Amino acid sequence: MTMRTAYRVLAYLLALSVAVQASLIAFGAFALENNIGNGPVSDGDTTGVTLHHSFAYVVLLCAVALLAVSPGARVSHGVRWAAIPLGLIVVQFFLAYSAAIIGVLHGLNALAIFAVALLAGRRVPKTAPVADIRNSVLIRRPIAEVFDFAVDSRNEFKWNPKVRAMTKLTDGPIGLGTRMAARWTMSGHIGLECTEYARP
């Protein structure tokens, strides 16, 4: 699983955990309401409320995990979008134990956490960005020889110190459809594929 995939999954898990959290308090409220006519509310079923309180730590764990993977995911403003829900969750803990009039904001804040988590997940591109790298240099060698050297990405080791891995994945000579697995300093594993090949 790539860091970007982990970021997306954790963001959606965070949104889902908030939805579960809201359903647990709704369950608890309905269970208590059903017991009002049968005796003191204190004797009612508080299972839902107890689960709501316990599940809050699952929500917090998802938010912390999302923030932890955000620097490596390289999502545009990904760290910011991961930090916002964590900040809102900290506020949520304070609101949960505030006076009733302030506690009204508890539900609204939960909706904000849910929305921001969904938006964070949607910020991850569904496909990896394609890099278009162009350069020019004068080389006093036959053009066919230069082409054969440049088209084989494994030769990048000879001039780029930031290359960490360059492995040919396909059989046969370099040509249309040749695929490589590459990794550079400060990058994850990247797939390369030759989509155009016109040897001079």
Would you kindly provide a written description of the structure presented here, covering whatever features stand out?
Helix content is 56%, strand content 8%. The protein has 200 residues and is mainly α. It folds into 2 domains: 3-122; 143-193, no CATH class. Helix 2 packs antiparallel against helix 3 (78-96). The chain is rod-shaped, with a radius of gyration of 27 Å. It starts with a helix and ends in a 7-residue tail after the last strand. 19% of the residues are buried.
| Unreliable residue runs | none
Alpha-beta content class: mainly alpha
Q: How many extended strands?
A: 3
Q: Given the structure, what is the number of helices?
A: 5
Shape call: rod-shaped
Strand count, sense and barrel status of the largest sheet are: 3 strands, antiparallel
Percent range for β-strand residues: 5-15%
Q: Give the rounded overall mean pLDDT.
A: 85
Helix content: 55-70%
Radius of gyration: 27 Å
Q: What is the count of structural domains? A: 2
SSE run: HHHHHEEE
Strand order of the largest sheet: 1-2-3
Q: What distance lies between the first and last C-alpha atoms, to the nearest angstrom?
A: 40 Å
